[in-house]
Design a protein that fits this description.
Layout (H helix, E strand, L loop, with lengths): L3 H5 L11 H8 L29 H11 L4
Length: 71
């Protein structure tokens, strides 16, 4: 599996990365597929805390900006 820092800095909103071999089994490809935020999506809520290092405010804002265009 990828190192924690590498997982946190991929700049892609994607499914979990199990590693090339397991990704191939689960997703049919060596890399995890990205979520399509431009298509039709169910309702989504964003939560983050001031001390949550996994939910950087800039990252949350970037995903929310893409999500608002969904129908």
């Amino acid at each position: 599996m990828k190192a924690e820092k590498e997982i946190l800095n991929i700049n892609v909103f994607q499914k979990y990365d199990w590693g090339p071999e397991e990704n191939q089994k689960r997703y049919g490809q060596e890399t995890p597929p990205a979520f399509n935020l431009e298509g039709s999506m169910p309702p989504l809520a964003f939560f983050r805390g001031d001390n949550d290092f996994l939910a950087d405010p800039e990252d949350v804002a970037r995903v929310a900006e893409k999500y608002k265009n969904c129908s």
